[in-house]
């Protein structure tokens, strides 16, 4: 009875915090400020719960279960939009192109940034392992890790015989309706490919049957307007969702596991932060103020950090590029959509490269060999295609990389206890890279709107 009363008391406080965020919205406090406040309140509230009850107490579990209605519900709403938004965004991008002549340039620049930064991220991950002298032989295995390793063995069977050519073929949508339902790990990139074909077909019809093309254009424009309105409605929930999501993370984190694997966690975040700094340097090289970028990208990066879902961040990603960073609409749609399954710096770059470098010496491989380092970077870069932008994408990428290099996959299971903590930073880096690709491509194409980029009032609002 006491625990029930305590749970109700904590939930009343949580409800009051949600109401305070609502009052801020009615007073027209800026969206980014409300997101920042929600993040801070959630961290503080979660720490208090951790300190008072502990992460495994019945009260903490019950509170998190109820507050997850807000957090997980918000993520579910965003994920609901992902496939329709990818389709409408990419097809809509084609309708904004006068001809297909710029399509090759846009695709080339976007993919160059995504894949190039992933290769660099892999190299940074390997170097970080060397700097911190991480040794896979020192990682301990408990009950949780044992169960995870058994699960991974089953997943490994799905990819162990999958060659790179077969992996490429798996991207092609055999049943677009199944892929729109997200039934495969490569469904996201399959929808991207299908949407591209639809867009190319539109450009072809536009030259031969203008009346039909105009009719199709009106349908896409109407669907785009409806979809973006739904996006706006869902984005209004962002501060509430972030409050609940970060509360769950801070209240349920296993501090003992974090301490035991503290060196690996620290090394991972050093690699992630280093790569993020490189993002900022690349922005500087393309005449973009990193401070401006950080201020305007904060809402989407904070959501990616707390939700651990690149796919869920897609609506906010596109809106941020278009409305605050001045990226051309077509390029924003391409970069955000492609970034869901190609070139994820954190999940498909740093993480699998670090695991490969950690575990290789345990089977007698000289990981310090330049040729082997280059092999890891190459395998990671190629394998980064088709990594789903949802929870588990990093595990999938790691299984492919480790399997391709004939390395044991058990290392993935040994770090399961700190996986959520690291995944937060990985996801934020993934989303940053897709926005980086949009900004750089728009600058290369000479259509980055500096009047929007440099305007402090140009922010994403949930009106």
From TrEMBL:
Subcellular location: Membrane
Gene3D superfamilies, A to Z: Sodium:dicarboxylate symporter
Keywords assigned by UniProt, alphabetized: Amino-acid transport, Membrane, Transmembrane, Transmembrane helix, Transport
Origin: domain of life: Bacteria
GO CC, alphabetical: plasma membrane
Topology in membrane: Multi-pass membrane protein
A Pfam family that the UniProt record links to this protein: SDF
Cell cycle keyword on record: no
Predominant localisation class: membrane
TM annotation in the entry: 6-23, 35-53, 73-94, 106-132, 187-205, 226-246, 266-285, 372-390, 396-416
One GO molecular-function entry: L-cystine transmembrane transporter activity
Family: Belongs to the dicarboxylate/amino acid:cation symporter (DAACS) (TC 2.A.23) family.
Name of the protein in question: L-cystine uptake protein TcyP
